[in-house]
């Protein structure tokens, strides 16, 4: 087996035990990038000499007997909208194509402190807003499973590079499914942590205008990986107390005690917004069966709370974006302009053309009630099992073909949009392959119950068939 094929757990152990060097691992991954990235266009900025210099420093630390972090020597990609000092930070926008970051953001700094070797910047749509990955300066990213289908967005380059073997670990961010949806589309694992667990701090020199409240309160940084075990290591490396983040925690929470007995899993297939595709419904049913086999107490439930949260996403996020929309659209590509038009039309269908301050304030107040109600349910250790999306991976550009289809895609993404509003952790894990495309399922737990959610994701992964794109493995 080639080094690029190995999981994070094995790569880190081999380097730590001096059985392979970090340079050998980096060279293997760079070779893989050279072989497959020209076709997929998942990584937008790869600098081999810088990567190899990082790897040589990692090997020198091993030779000197220094204390090694959990990701020492492991190649990791970072996203083009996330500050990494000296690296491209174009946001997928031509006007920003030459921008580089002055500092690491907190999540990248945590990866660096854990010993990661940075290997490329993953592609994303303009301003990381669409569920599709394409932009003017860097072009379109293809799904390793099918060139005609999206790798997801906005962390589509991260998920595609993982599925094709370019890196074993990737950093992404998520405010509407941008980690979890690409993971589902590409057959990898994506973790959206509880808000505050991974610091979202960015140095003032790299922030630009102060982000709107929804971005501050909902956006998270998190890992994508090929296995649940690797995603767990990535999350532990990224997590940390950081009070510079206004929503950060003062100390990492301890795991919540479990009262004993089987953990309950509520299966939520449909919340009345978008009927699940048969392949999606079958994947959720299979995952429910596997969880029952693993000893979980599984039951079908209805949870209209999630539908309400998904509707609030369209109110609060888009009202926050409205003041800056003209400037954004001036810099955006045509695809994002069309996407935003359809998304605002969708929101108007729910809330009216201009909902106003009273509706906005009421939405924020209602959000607090929904969070409390969900935590009362899940804080006992209970989990939810949902689709990743009501539909399998979409055809490329499906969101901008016509207004009806564009609006229906927002509806189908209710499992992706409801969770950021509420701030709970969710994990996307591959469960099936249908018509040549991977289908993921989502597991949701109580706040700061990431380990409980990851344990359940591991139970699904242990029972699922091996899910890798056949043309690349």
TrEMBL record:
PROSITE patterns, per database record: AMIDASES (PS00571)
Domain of life where this protein originates: Bacteria
Coiled coil residues, start to end: none
Span of domain Amidase: 24-454
Classification via SUPFAM superfamilies: Amidase signature (AS) enzymes (SSF75304)
Segments passing through the bilayer: none
Family matches, as NCBIfam families: PRK07487.1
Protein's recorded name: Amidase domain-containing protein
């Amino acid at each position: 087996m080639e080094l690029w094929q190995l999981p994070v757990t094995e790569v880190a152990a081999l380097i730590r035990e001096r059985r392979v060097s970090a340079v050998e691992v980096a060279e293997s991954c760079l070779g893989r990038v050279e072989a497959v990235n020209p076709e997929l266009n998942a990584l937008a900025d790869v600098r081999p000499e810088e990567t190899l210099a990082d790897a040589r420093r990692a090997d020198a630390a091993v030779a000197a007997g220094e204390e090694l972090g959990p990701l020492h020597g492991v190649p990791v990609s970072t996203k083009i909208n996330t500050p990494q000092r000296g690296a491209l930070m174009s946001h997928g926008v031509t006007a920003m194509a030459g921008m580089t970051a002055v500092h690491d953001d907190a999540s990248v700094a945590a990866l660096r402190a854990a010993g990661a070797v940075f290997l490329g910047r993953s592609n994303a749509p303009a301003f990381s807003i669409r569920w599709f990955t394409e932009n003017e300066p860097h072009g379109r990213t293809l799904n390793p499973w099918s060139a005609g289908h999206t790798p997801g967005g906005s962390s589509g380059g991260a998920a595609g590079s993982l599925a094709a073997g370019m890196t074993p670990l990737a950093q992404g961010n998520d405010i509407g499914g941008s980690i979890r949806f690409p993971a589902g589309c590409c057959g990898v694992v994506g973790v959206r942590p509880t808000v505050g667990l991974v610091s979202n701090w960015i140095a003032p020199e790299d922030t630009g205008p102060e982000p709107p409240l929804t971005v501050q309160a909902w956006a998270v940084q998190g890992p994508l990986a090929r296995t649940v075990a690797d995603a767990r290591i990535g999350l532990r490396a990224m997590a940390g107390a950081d009070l510079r983040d206004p929503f950060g925690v003062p100390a990492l929470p301890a795991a919540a005690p479990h009262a004993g007995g089987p953990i309950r899993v509520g299966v939520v297939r449909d919340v009345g917004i978008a009927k699940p595709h048969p392949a999606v419904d079958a994947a959720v049913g299979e995952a429910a069966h596997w969880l029952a086999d693993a000893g979980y107490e599984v039951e079908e439930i209805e949870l209209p709370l999630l539908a309400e949260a998904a509707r609030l996403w369209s109110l609060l996020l888009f009202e926050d974006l409205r003041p800056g929309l003209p400037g954004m659209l001036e810099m955006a590509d045509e695809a994002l302009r069309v996407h935003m038009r359809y998304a605002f039309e969708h929101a108007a269908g729910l809330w009216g053309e201009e909902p106003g301050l009273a509706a906005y304030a009421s939405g924020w107040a209602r959000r607090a009630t929904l969070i409390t109600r969900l935590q009362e349910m899940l804080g006992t250790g209970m989990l939810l099992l949902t689709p990743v999306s009501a539909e399998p991976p979409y055809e490329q550009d499906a969101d901008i073909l016509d207004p009806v289809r564009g609006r229906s895609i927002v509806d189908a993404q209710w499992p992706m949009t409801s969770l950021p509003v509420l701030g709970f952790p969710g994990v996307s894990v591959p469960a099936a392959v249908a018509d040549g495309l991977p289908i993921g399922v989502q597991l949701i737990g109580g706040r700061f119950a990431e380990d409980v959610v990851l344990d359940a994701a591991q139970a699904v992964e242990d029972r699922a068939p091996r899910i890798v794109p056949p043309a690349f493995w």
